[in-house]
Write a structure and sequence with these properties.
0% strand; globular; mainly alpha; Growth Hormone, Chain: A; 2 domains
């Protein structure tokens, strides 16, 4: 493997088309992120089938989901730090090969233990791949378009929630649960081909980064602050989002088929919000962080207030989806600038977001177990996100002032 420079070369699309986002490379990375994200959600609806087929319990098979998320959260920064010395392109290809192998192991597994082994192997790829794809796309566009490019790559995760989860369930229910893992492996193979063909070869770096240096970047105060408000923001969002189906059914009174449609609406709102959030972050990153976190607080409170009203809660749902995902490109662009593009820090932020997802679901579950209703989860989530907003406001103090600076200086602020 060769090492790389963090700067774009004359061979990159950014050089040949100044000011534009290189669509083909971005879509190649987006496809891989879609596969990696789908692996997290696609098997959720198949847990009873897996348990029944392997003579296990649904509770035990639930670890198939948990172990993937935990592995993503823990291993990402360390793996990204280790691989930072190598070519990003080849590292991304290697990570997707590992993901492919992990899914084939799960597909062929005769018992829960081997399925879990495959899940751990597959999960190694997500956080590190996301970090390298964000670091790579940042070298392929001008500074004033970085957040928009990141939003397209991150959009693969949202599409995984919108399409990956239901498609995985449909495939598993019609062809058997093993077919879902095979489908994930096939998607990974397509991603490997796409990255191989579309991503430019990296330029070797004079001095390869060392693992300890990469990991030291994570504990910079300004990086830790980003990790904190990213995790808090996502904790608040997923406190409500994790239990959105029972809220829509039990509080708002929608039927099952309508709820499925509303979840699709929420997902589409999230995808469009993600792209809009990228544009807002490129306009002014400090303002984007604070505005979008504030809108998310409002959306969570609105969800609690409007839950009994069908028309109003639909509007609140669209706002929640848009705000919840619009802020993600701002998180990642902020950590990219604070960490000087270090993949380990980007991976740590992705892990922090996953921690927020886990905490949100735990907080929501605990609240329901102690007698609160699904309607209460909105204001509980708003409280966590408001804490994230306060941390973000403290982080960008002094940067929130009118300016006529160029987009490049705004992104780097």
């Amino acid at each position: 493997m060769t090492t790389e420079s963090p700067t774009a070369t004359a061979d990159t699309p950014a050089a040949s088309a100044p000011g534009s986002i290189p669509i083909v490379p971005v879509l190649a990375m987006m496809l891989c992120v879609f596969a990696l994200g789908s692996a997290e959600y696609a098997v959720i609806g198949l847990l009873p089938d897996i348990a029944r087929d392997l003579g296990s319990t649904v509770t035990a098979s639930g670890w198939i989901v948990t172990v993937y998320a935990v592995t993503v959260a823990i291993t990402g920064p360390f793996l990204a730090a280790y691989l930072a010395r190598y070519s990003r392109k080849r590292s991304m290809i290697a990570l997707m090969i590992v993901f492919l192998i992990g899914n084939l192991i799960s597909a062929a597994a005769p018992n829960i233990v081997l399925i879990l082994t495959g899940r751990v192997i597959a999960a190694l790829a997500l956080s590190a791949f996301a970090a390298f794809s964000i670091a790579t796309v940042a070298t392929m566009v001008p500074p004033q378009r970085i957040a928009q490019a990141i939003s397209w790559v991150a959009g693969g995760l949202i599409l995984a929630m919108i399409l990956g989860a239901p498609l995985g369930t449909i495939i598993g229910q019609n062809l058997g649960w093993r077919a879902t893992f095979v489908a994930l492996a096939v998607t990974a193979a397509a991603g490997i081909v796409a990255v191989s063909a579309a991503i430019p070869v990296d330029v070797p770096a004079d001095t390869p980064p060392d693992v300890l240096g990469e990991l030291r970047t994570i504990i910079r105060p300004q990086v830790l602050i980003v990790l904190a408000f990213s995790a808090l923001g996502q904790t608040g969002f997923f406190t409500a989002y994790t239990y959105i189906t029972p809220l829509l059914e039990d509080v708002s009174g929608f039927g099952g088929a309508t709820v499925a449609l509303l979840l699709l609406v929420l997902g589409v709102g999230g995808f469009l919000g993600n792209l809009a959030g990228g544009r807002l972050a490129d306009w002014n990153l400090p303002r984007a962080l604070t505005i979008l976190l504030a809108v998310l607080v409002v959306a969570l409170l609105t969800l609690s207030i409007t839950a009994p009203s069908k028309p109003a809660v639909v509007a609140a749902l669209v706002l929640l989806g848009a705000a919840g995902f619009a802020v993600v490109p701002a998180y990642q662009t902020r950590v990219l600038t604070m960490a000087d593009g270090a993949p380990s820090a980007i991976a740590a932020n992705t892990s922090g977001i996953n921690v927020g997802i886990a905490l949100g679901s735990l907080i929501g579950g605990a609240a329901l177990a102690h007698g609160l209703s699904e309607r209460d989860l909105g204001w509980i989530g708003a409280t966590a996100t408001a804490l994230g907003l306060l941390v973000a406001l403290w982080s960008v103090r002094g940067e929130l002032r009118p300016t006529r600076e160029s987009g490049a200086s705004r992104v780097g602020a």
